[in-house]
Amino acid sequence: MMTNLFSVFDPSSSVTSLPMNWVSVIVGVGILPLCFWKGPSRGAVLYGRLEKGLNQEMGVLLGASRRTWAVTFLALFLLIVLNNSLGLLPYVFTASSHLVFTASLALPLWLGYFMKGWVKNTTHMLAHLVQQGTPGALMGFMVLIESVSSVIRPGTLAVRLAANMIAGHLLLTLLSGAISLASVTSMVAILVSQVALLVLEAAVAAIQAYVFAVLSTLYASEV
């Protein structure tokens, strides 16, 4: 029996006696050999088009001098969307619903390009702290605001992803718990609502991965 609503996010899922904790993080490795097939499947063609489109978009955001960084953010997108999608399956723990996972993705990336920017492009980074045309009386205040905005970026990335994944799973859990107490008519309405929420969660899984990767790309483009 579930004593706490948030216990659904505890990494304690298992099938028979086999622990399934964090399986969504590593299960994607089994998909990689598909690229070695003699003829590409429809999934491989779709993946190729997705990879090409995102690579071009991120390359434009990063600029010509940092275009090779797009591979890193593309891999980040694929990792997140894979974990978000696998978390919708039964008995699979959603790793991206925990700050431990999301912060471990956002913080090292932010530290990497943030330190690179201040070490190699110090003047450029200082120029970003004060917008062009800012009155002299407000320059100190603008420096403070921009500094705080830069420091909290990894936190906002991590919390946004985790909060969106938690919200949808909580709604599904609440609706599933109400089925046993509902009438036949209400039960049908709840089942239809759950199917609709599941479709919405599938869309959120892809959208949040895209937002995380694109925002990381935009932050990296400023250094």
Task: Write a structural description.
By secondary structure, this protein is mainly alpha-helical. The chain has a domain at 71-221. The chain is 66% helix and 2% strand. The chain has eight helices and two strands; from the N terminus they run E-E-H-H-H-H-H-H-H-H. It has helices at residues 23-26, 42-62, 70-86, 99-120, 122-128, 139-151, 153-178, 184-221, and strands spanning 14-15, 18-19. A two-stranded antiparallel ribbon has the order 1-2. Strand 1 and strand 2 (18-19) form a beta hairpin. The longest helix is centred in the C-terminal third of the chain and has 38 residues, at 184-221. The radius of gyration is 21 Å and the shape is globular. The chain starts with 13 loop residues before the first strand and ends with a helix. The mean pLDDT is 78.
Q: How many β-strand runs?
A: 2
Order of helices and strands: EEHHHHHHHH
Outline, from the CA principal axes?
A: globular
Strand content: under 5%
Euclidean distance between termini CA atoms: 50 Å
Q: What's the total helix number?
A: 8
Family: Belongs to the ATPase A chain family.
Subcellular location: Membrane; Mitochondrion inner membrane
Transmembrane segments: 20-37, 58-82, 88-113, 165-191, 198-220
GO molecular function: proton-transporting ATP synthase activity, rotational mechanism
